[in-house]
Amino acid sequence: MVLFRYLLTGFFYILFSFLVTACDAPSTSSTATTEGSETGEMKPPPSGRFVRFYNWNNYIADATVERFEKSCNCRMIQDYFSDHEEMLAKLAAGATGYDVMVPTGNVVETLMAQKMIQPIDKSRLKNLNQVKSEFLNMWFDSGNQYSVPYGYSVTLIGYNAEKIKELGLPVDSWALIFEPELLEKLEGKITVMDSQRELFAAALLYLGYSVNDGDEEHLKKARDLILRAKPYWAAFNASSYIKELTIGNIWVAHGYSNDMFQADQDARAAGRPFTIASSLPKEGAVLAVDNMVIHKSAPHLDLAYQLIDFLIDKQSTAELSNLTGSGSINALSLEYIDQNIKDNKAVFPDAETFKRLQMLKDYSRKERRLANRLWTEIKVR
């Protein structure tokens, strides 16, 4: 799930609001469970009971869907979005019919401000007490008034374990992607994310600053650090680094923890003579927490609550981790999670490491303009 989640600007909202036609029900073009006519019109399943789930692609296990449908005697109709701009634009254009949606933290805040979601009645969620305390009462939704945690990923360093061991390179620091004396051994074999906020975050962390630091002097230092390293990188890549790692074209990638898990799974399945490992740098990393929210006009409210409660259960959260390699928000799920995943400290950091993780927040308008200008300088030089 390679996703550019964080840069939310008014430009996208306005542009897509004009381009996307308002609709009364979700599109069926990407639904997993639909009952429609030749025209693609969404229709209820024969049972008459269904819930509509608007989610990232490949972000729920088939086994989970099957178990939920059996438990509620209903159908789950899924629709997918590839980035938040797409989701926000569709909602702004008038799309209705969704029950539960899965935005990342800062987008929960946006949906709250736009009054697109309704308050959560926590008394209807018997499994909420299974959720780890560190994923509750987060900055974007104090008291979890509008959101419930779903899963999380960390932006870190993925690498070809055998090749990096052969080269004798350290993997516990962002120095691996920024320091020329290390990069000389990796020239043309390393990619970084084609994401302004993610790459600036890595640079800021390495320099000792917060991922949300908008100070002009600090951002310029981050720009200079990036420009110094840029000649050694093969590419800015946010879409195909999984494949490039899997086939051995690159040896190091800056990217999401669940993508590194997928790259390793693919390499093993293909019988590659190497494994893909991942490391959470000692300076810290970006944490992305995905959450479930209920649309303001959810037509199937009772089933929406049943779905949320089902998905935060220990078995469902474990199935998500086993499918995607993402971290589990459930304190009781470890017994169901594959050993190689729960042993991965980059996916399940200890309490001390967790303190070093930071979530991206939206920049102010002034900070965004500065970051955009510096990003342009980076890309054109």
Quick structural overview:
The protein is α/β, with parallel strands linked by helices and 381 residues long.
Description:
The structure is a single chain. β1 and β2 (42-43) form a beta hairpin. The strands form two sheets. Strands 3, 4, 5, 6, 7, 8, 9, 10, 11 and 12 form a ten-stranded mixed beta sheet that branches. This protein has a two-stranded antiparallel ribbon with strand order 1-2. It is globular, with a radius of gyration of 21 Å. It has 381 residues and is of the alpha/beta class. The chain has helices at residues 10-19, 62-72, 84-92, 105-113, 161-167, 175-178, 180-183, 196-206, 216-229, 241-247, 257-269, 301-311, 314-324, 339-342, 351-354, 365-380, and strands at 35-36, 42-43, 50-56, 75-81, 100-101, 148-160, 190-192, 235-236, 252-256, 276-279, 285-294, 357-358. It contains 16 helices and twelve strands. It has two domains: 10-152 and 289-348, 3-Layer(aba) Sandwich (D-Maltodextrin-Binding Protein, domain 2), CATH 3.40.190; 153-286 and 361-380, D-Maltodextrin-Binding Protein, domain 2 (3-Layer(aba) Sandwich), CATH 3.40.190.10. The relative contact order is 0.17.
